[in-house]
Structures are given as structure tokens and as C-alpha cells.
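Blinded run. Sample ID left blank on purpose so nobody reads anything into the name before looking at the predicted structure. Input follows.
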Amino acid sequence: MEYLSIISIALLILIPSTMLFLNYSKSTTDTITSGQLNLIGTTLQNKAEEMYVVGKGSWVTLEFSFPQSFQEAGINTGNELYFTYSTAKGVSQVVFFFDRFNITSITNTSCSTYCNLNFSEGINKIKIESNGSQVIVKKV
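Blinded prediction complete.
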């Protein structure tokens, strides 16, 4: 009978502790993913600004490692770059705005409504190029 009491107390301590650890682990993973995508987006935003300022014909190729929970990237209305990713609570997005110029994923065409960037989880090479009036962001 004493052994049963000891095992019951141990399980009462162990099960909630395990649940707490798992929830904390999921929250940490979501924070790391958000941080990675924020870093990628900020870098893309800064390099796009740089290429726009340098002028027509300027370009740079960057390499990024997208996290495992990454789902898609796209451009809305020509001035919003967004990344969609899954979290423990559902789906989330990080969005970056371009005020001085428009961005697109297609040469000589604007993303006035929506363009998909075809990025995938893992390593992606991305070319950022200025054509004078806008900046083209595309996977190489």
C-alpha cells in the first residue's frame, strides 16, 4: 500500500511537470521561428531599399534558411512582404512594409494585388534586383 502511495505522488508531480515543459517548449519554438522570419524580412527590406537607392540594374543574391514551420511568402498590393508560418496555436504572419517603392516577384509586372514568392522551408537563394521604378524579389 505504501508503494502505491509513493507512485501516486510521483505521478501527480511528474505529469503536470511534463505538460508544463511541453507547453514551454512549443512556445519557445514559436518565438525562435518568429525571430528567424523577422530577421529574414528585415534583411530583405534593407537590401531592397539599398538596391532601389543604388538604381536600375543593381542586384544582390542572398541565402536564407527558412524554419521548418514556414508555409509561404508573398507580396500584397506591391508594398507588403509577408511570411506565413504555423505555430502551436494556429497560423501566424509577419509583415514588412515598403513605403518608398513597390516590390514585385515578376520582371516588368507589378504585384498590385498578390504575388507568391515560391520560397520553401530550408535554404533559399533570393535575388533582389532594382529595375529603376520597383524592386524585384525572386527565388533563384
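Unblinding after everyone has recorded impressions. Residues 2-54 form the longest helix (53 residues).
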